[in-house]
Amino acid sequence: MKEKKLIYYAGDGYDGVHENGKFEVKTNSGHKEFTKLSEARKYFDSLNEAKFIWDVNGIPELLDGYTQSDI
What we know:
Number of strands: 5
């Protein structure tokens, strides 16, 4: 089985994002919701698969995202 490599996709980053709010981490296997940015980022950083973290306060905004490719 080939190893999967994470490749940066896009994102606006975390500057100016408040700690409390609505955040979602989405993967191919589903999504998980958070009310604290720090908890969402900790979960996001622990994943080794295609992953996207969204700020869903108002208009959804992609904060960070990675796709996955075969090496």
